[in-house]
Amino acid sequence: MSNMSEHAGMYDFGLTAEQEQRARDIHERSIVIDLLFQGPLSPSVIPAEVSEQIKAECEPLKDDPMAYAMLPSKRLRQMSARGELAAFKDEWYRSGITAGNRELDMSSHEGIMTSMGEVQEQFDRTDWLIKALTAADIRRAKADGLKAGIVTTQDPTGLGKNLDLLEALHSFGLRLVQLTYNNQNAIASGCMELANGGVSNFGMTFIRRLNELRIVVDTSHCGKQTTLDACRLSEAPVIASHTGVEAIYPHRRCKSDEEIQAIAATGGVIGVFAMPWFVHEDPKNTTIDHVLDHIDYIVRLVGVDHVGIGTDWPMSDVDWSLVYFKEHIAPKLGFAKGDGPSTELVRGLEQYGLFINFTRGLVARGYSDEEVGKIIGGNWLRVFEQVWGS
C-alpha cells in the first residue's frame, strides 16, 4: 500500500493519522470497482516519447479527423496489452481498483469486430487480468491478487435489430449494455435528444432480451423518459454506470431525482462520474470534493445501497489528442460546446493511482467502514450477483 498512501497525500481532506490508516485499511481489503474505467493510464503517466511516437504515426491521418483522434488511444491499448507500457500494470495496482470495465465499440459492425479483438488481446496477453463473467470472478481476482475486466458497451447501435448478435456477444463476455449514447437509435432516445422519446417498441424487446441473457441494463447516456421506461420495463436491476446529480449541476448528462429514485427502486445503482464539465460549473477548478457532493446527495435521496463510482475520467490518451477530440470530434457525438474530453482534470483524481482519494474523502465525510465499502465497489458487486449470478 505504500504507493497509494504516498500519492494520496496530494489532496488534503484534513484527516488525522488514525483516519488515514483507516482509509488505507478499507481500500486494501475492499473490492473496488470503477464501472466506467477509462484507465488505468492517464496522460500524466504516459512517457513523452510514447506520445511523440504516436503523434508521428497519426500525422498522415489528419485528413480523416475521426481516425486521427481515435488512433492514439487504440495504440495505447495495444501497447498495454503487449507489455510495452509498464505503467498499465503499475497504475492499475497503485489505484487499488479490483475490477474495471473493458469497453467494446458496438457503434458499427466494423467497430464490434475490431474492439472484440483489442479487448480479447488484453485478456490473452495479460496474465494478471481476467475476464469477469460472474461476480465470483471478481471475488477470485481480489483473493488472488489479480484484476478483473468487465466487458461492456456504451453504444449498441451497430447491432441494428440483430438479437442473435447480441447473444453471440454475451457468449464473448458482454455483461453490461447502455441503451443509447446521447442520441437516438432503434432502442431509445439519448439524453441529448430534445424529443425525449423514451424506449421504442423494439427497445422493449431489447430490454427483455438483456434480462433473459442476464446482461445489466445501463441508462447513463439515456434521456429522462428512456431511463424511466427502462426502470419500468426491466425485470432486473437497472443502473447508470456513470452520471451525476441534476439538482447539483443541471447538465443533460446528469440524472433528475425522479430518475435516481426509479433506478434505486429496481435495486439498481447510480455511479457517479469524475468528469469536470459534468459535476461542477467551473471545470478548471473541479475537485474530488465536488464529486463526493454528488455521492452524498444520492445517499441522502435513496440510501447508501444505491450509489457507486464510474469515473469515466481521466482518459487513457495523450494530451494533444484530447484537445483535438474536443475541438473536432466531440460536437459530432452529441456533446454540447465546451463539453467532452479535453485536458481538464478533477483535483485529487489526476491519475488512477489516486483512486484511494475516494475512500479517504468518504472517511472524511463520516461514512462507516461498511458504507465506504459499499460505495467503492460493494454495491456494484451486489447488482452483478443479482443479474449475472454469484
Automatic annotation (TrEMBL):
InterPro entries listed in its UniProt record: Metal_Hydrolase, Pept_M19
Superkingdom of this protein's organism: Bacteria
One GO MF term attached to the UniProt entry: metallodipeptidase activity
GO BP, one annotated term: proteolysis
Pfam family, one: Peptidase_M19
Protein name, entry field: Membrane dipeptidase
Annotated organism of origin: Paenibacillus taihuensis
